[in-house]
Amino acid sequence: MGPRSATPLHLKWIEIDLAALRSNLKAALGLLSGSKLMAVVKADAYGHGAEAVSRLALAGGASCLGVLTLAEAVSLRQKGISGPIVLLAPPLPEQAGLLARARVEPTIDSLELADALSRRARGAQLAVHVDLDYGLGRWGLPPKELDGFLAALSRRRRLRVRGLSAHIDYVPGKNAVEAEDKLRDFHRRCEAARRRCPGILCHAANTSILLDFPHWKMDMVRLGNFLYGINPTSRELPLKAPWGFYARIISLREVAKGRPIGYASEYVAPRRMRVATLPAGYADGLTMEPAERLIRLGSGFQYWGMLRGRQAPFVGRCGIAHVLVDVTRIPDARLGDAVLLPIRRTAASVRLPRVYKG
Fold first, then answer.
1. Which secondary-structure segment (H or E) carries 78?
2. Dihedral sign, CA of 30, 133, 128, 117?
3. What is the C-alpha end-to-end distance of the chain, expressed in Å?
4. What pTM was computed for the model?
5. Cα torsion for 121, 125, 127, 128, to the nearest 10°?
6. For residue range 144-166, what is the model confidence (pLDDT) as tens digits?
7. Distance of alpha carbon 208 from alpha carbon 35, whole angstroms
8. DSSP per residue over 101-140, as a string?
9. Which residues are catalytic?
10. Considering Cα of 36, then 40, then 233, then 239, what sign does the dihedral take?
11. CA gap 72, 249 in Å, rounded
């Protein structure tokens, strides 16, 4: 991926490779063996643009979309996205009317919410997903309460249980034995629930579960990281990186050894250096401990950008709208060159232009 897609107007931008997203989607579908795929597009599709990713995912074989909030779902509807949308977190009871009008499948975990939805359901039954809490403690029913809850829902005739979900508190390399036990228990409860709710979709697998526990794919897999080229496991995968944050060099300076530069004169040049200025800073989301490979862990954080395959370390403090990088070892660096910068995708400012290619 390179900066050729940017217009001359842009000094900094997010570049998104749609061909890479399609490749990752195809690879995901190849692992599912008949299970359905929910494309998770919460948080603006992890910064990739929810509308663009939603269209690509539904056209490429995803069965539905997953968002976190009703506002995210309504935004997609307003942009013409008509495919099924699942709300992964329970909405507020007072949002029931908006939710029904937006034709969204909510996650529920209380009878108060179920009653509010039942009162607002229009026409056909409203499909809902019942979530079980296996340790995250954020929302969801205690698993032991599922039977009673399903019995109570069966008396709410305007609601139909479409799915049974769980988000296992699994971190690759940390708690695999515990996760296996929880997945087995969830599967057991799903099989029992099918007797009351035939045809329900049982889903607990995200990217990490799919890769490390492929035997627990169940009926549907919820994928976010996988689609966006992020592999949290040790398994080798042919994923492609669809996302990059670029900023152009707007100034080049020769800095003498011993000269202090940057805020508070905290950085003193250890040698003669060539320093470039980039018009990107923490207002864009830069240096917010990104989950990328452009960061070194050791005695404090050290960040760097990449230019023509070579590292350009940050110099001094990052400002609100600029950062200095050392290009001494990149002698062919020129004004206007685009430097790939480290940034957490979901922290990237919405003001940054998204440039799509492929």
1. helix 70-78
2. negative
3. 10
4. 0.91
5. 60
6. 999 999 999 999 999 999 999 99
7. 16
8. HTT-EEEE--HHHHHHHHHH--SSPEEEEEEE-SS--SS-
9. 42, 263
10. positive
11. 35
